[in-house]
Amino acid sequence: MAVGVWVCKICGEAYIGKGKPSRCPFCGAYDKYIVDSKKYDDTGDWDVELNDVDKANVEKALGVEISNNLFYKCASKKVKEIDGQKLFKILAKVEGEHASVWKKILKLDEIKWEPPETCVDDYKADLEDSHAREDRAIKFYGEAAKAAKTPRVKEIFEAFVEVETDHLKLSEVRLK
Ligand SMILES: [Fe+2]
Ligand SMILES: [Fe+2]
Q1: How far apart are CA 138 and CA 156, in angstroms?
Q2: What is this structure's pTM?
Q3: How remote is the CA of residue 106 from the centroid of ligand 2, in Å?
Q4: What structural domains does the chain harbor?
Q5: Number of the ligand closest to the Cα of 90
Q6: What is the strand order of the sheet 4-8 is part of?
Q7: How far is the CA of 18 from the centre of ligand 2 (A)?
Q8: Listed residue (30, 8, 102, 90) closest to 64, CA to CA
């Protein structure tokens, strides 16, 4: 199989590889959203008209992702377990990518990455915090997807419910 360029329809990022990955390496979207770059035109993906409900939900989602990015960044530096450092570092990156998606939908020039989030040096306690955060995100995103009038916003919320469910499972197996 030849090396190809694959594009994620959710975050818009491209990936080079032999065959598409099972998850977008940037935002974690499932492979059903990953397409051959030659067959995809993303014109219009980031030029979305938002009604008041969708705008409020997207703004809230941006806040959720920023908070989770900062929490995971904090936790990745504090825990002594190598698995925890790696897990929280990649979760921080993915949540940061989610924040960037919402930023593009809102057509913001920049994101204010604050206020700083607190975390602890205990791996189990941070996993429990992670679990609660992902659980809240899944519930909110599910409701926001149902309420969404804009197809593009609905699509992103639905895709992120799946991604955050992956994150929830990662803490669940470690808390067993
Ligand atoms: Fe996220
Ligand atoms: Fe997450």
Answers
A1: 12
A2: 0.96
A3: 20
A4: 4-39 (2.20.28), 52-175 (1.20.1260.10)
A5: 2
A6: 14-17, 4-8, 34-36
A7: 27
A8: 102
